[in-house]
């Protein structure tokens, strides 16, 4: 059983025994409260910002002639100095919510002449007119009995440090408290009378630990750590957030007699400004980065727009002569057939060598005309692709179910390939995520992208099949869709010839193709990239290993911003 703590009681010689335990300090604070309550003359009742009642005693304490002069104030916060607004609002809100505090608070109030004076304060929640209100009682600061017994010069020193704007704590060489000021009590939210002169510093640290200031750390370890910091000149715990929510800059200064003066500077406002400046700096850097990205997008957009205009102009100029070439090739073939039918009766007049030579010439003419027509059609397809690449998308944005769109594009591409090569077959592995659902896209454009990817994959697996002639090789195409929250993914993977990193680096460059002449225009993937990245603000990623696989990943956001500087170029 613990022995009773008699610290804080008067001794026969008239001195006071300072408390040596936390319980003793609490008894000291309760004794001080009883003394304050016995002389408490000032009474103020308020709710929110409104002052509801004021008695004569409080009006006179604050330098007003009558209670009516206080009642006409626009707000109860008019009585609170600026540097105390934060803590007073917090205390009022807690009291209004029904929380009571058994001890006294040391606080500052603005008087009628705008001077600031320290007071002892007690707050209690009450019922006023059927609604909760705050009853605030103020009394002039009552010197603790321990301070009254100090020599006169120490009393003057106490009055001096009480007038300082920063919190001050003075310790002797043994770490006992010699004095502290009202600002320190306010900053740390200590009850007045809690730590009379002679109180060991360990008692204050244990009090802080028991009310939860130091978290879950061990009490003795924390006290030992802080005592060591007290011996370091200049700083104890440079920046500390105290229970009231304030941030303090705590510094130590050794005295010549071996004692220590600890100052506490309220830097809450400075930290707030620093945080705002840091956030503003981060926002400015973010905006600058966005501006740089936007600038780059505008440069690329301008270049692509110029290229598109140039491409469209060239394509239109080529379109007319290509039409003449194709049309006259067909017409010439028809005229040649008519000429041969007219010359048919004359064959009997030619000898066998002349007939053979005439047939060879006619065959050569037919072959040349077919080649002209084939290459004319290929050139016409290139021109059409160039026009599509320069024109961009013009379809409407619609909410579209992705999985059926992918399946439809797969069927379309497969049937198109099968129409050209009846012997071609491949296996399909489908992994459609049912959670993908609908996405707002331009369906024809995304379908065009998918058809292009599927066609390229069919070409890759067919090329590997022909090159290896391995009976164990089975062309396979894997198609998968995935729900990724605010975006969706479409993956197309084939086990074809694959690509090197050098090819991947140029893959989306207009007119770049790995296909032989006559089999590709080099505009399919470039156009697909334009649709996915610029039009739909998505991603188009490629991964590949030569003679193993190639995988294309399309990432589309579910929500497209209405306006974007990176929007796909318009004609």
From TrEMBL:
Residues 270-301 form a coiled coil. Gene3D superfamilies: 1.10.287.130, Histidine kinase-like ATPase, C-terminal domain, PAS domain. It comes from the Bacteria. GO terms for molecular function: phosphorelay sensor kinase activity. Its EC number is 2.7.13.3. Residues 313-560 form the Histidine kinase domain. It catalyses: ATP + protein L-histidine = ADP + protein N-phospho-L-histidine. It is an enzyme of class 2 (transferase). Keywords: Coiled coil, Phosphoprotein. Pfam families: HATPase_c, HisKA, PAS_7. PANTHER family: SENSOR HISTIDINE KINASE (PTHR43065), TWO-COMPONENT SENSOR PPRA (PTHR43065:SF42). This is histidine kinase. It comes from Azospirillum cavernae.
